[in-house]
Amino acid sequence: MSETFLNGDVRLIHGDSINVMPALGRVACVMSDPPYEAHMHAAKREKKAFGAQRRIRLDGHANPPPVNFASIDGVREIITQPLIEKCDGWFIMFCTPEGVAPWRDAIEAGRAKYKRACIWVKPDSAPQFNGQGPAMGAECFVTAWCGSGFSSWNGGGRRNVFTHLTNASDRHGEHPTEKPISLMLELVDLFTQPGDVILDPFMGSGSTGVAAVRLGRRFIGIEKDPRFYEIACERIADAVSRPDMFVTSRPREPKPISLFAGIEAAE
To answer: What is the predicted pLDDT for the residue at 43?
Structure first.
């Protein structure tokens, strides 16, 4: 395991989240994009006839690499319980439509309050090129409340539909399931408060961390793939170094949660 600390507000960990989590302190929010469910992994690896790769990006840029990590199905229940136990607020996980029910079951088994599945609509998603059925034009994420009392957020009575381009101009492009910065900015703004600590146990290329930094939140990210960890460190470090990109100012008196919790125990 190796770690990178940025500006006292960001802790990035190269390791397996299942092994790392016991050494972490409490957080205000868990927000992550874990690996796809198994059926989507199979679809992402499919090739067209004669070996040609399916067209995923429609903006002229190269396709992202194929999915090369294991499905969430084997570890969903293992990871959910300890995440819920460390969270004092919202638990948010991206998934396919077929993954909503398994996530709901795991959340309820962990005694968190499952709230609702939300929809991310992708106006620029690729069509179904073979014409054999409808294309996937949206993605889901489940929301649950891990805190005490009634759940609270900054969205009032707004609906659970979020519309953002998947191939926006600021897309990095190397991670096959990268989330748009604009989407993550909206979710961080709605589900957390300035100074909150957000934990992302499947950090990928770091979009959630970039959004957290720009909105004055603190961030803990865990990623076990060395290349994606390197990319996340670069992207989040760039965000930290550009205060002109911050959407809100940092709070003067952040909540007393240490990002260094458990380092001694883990060594």
So the answer is: 54
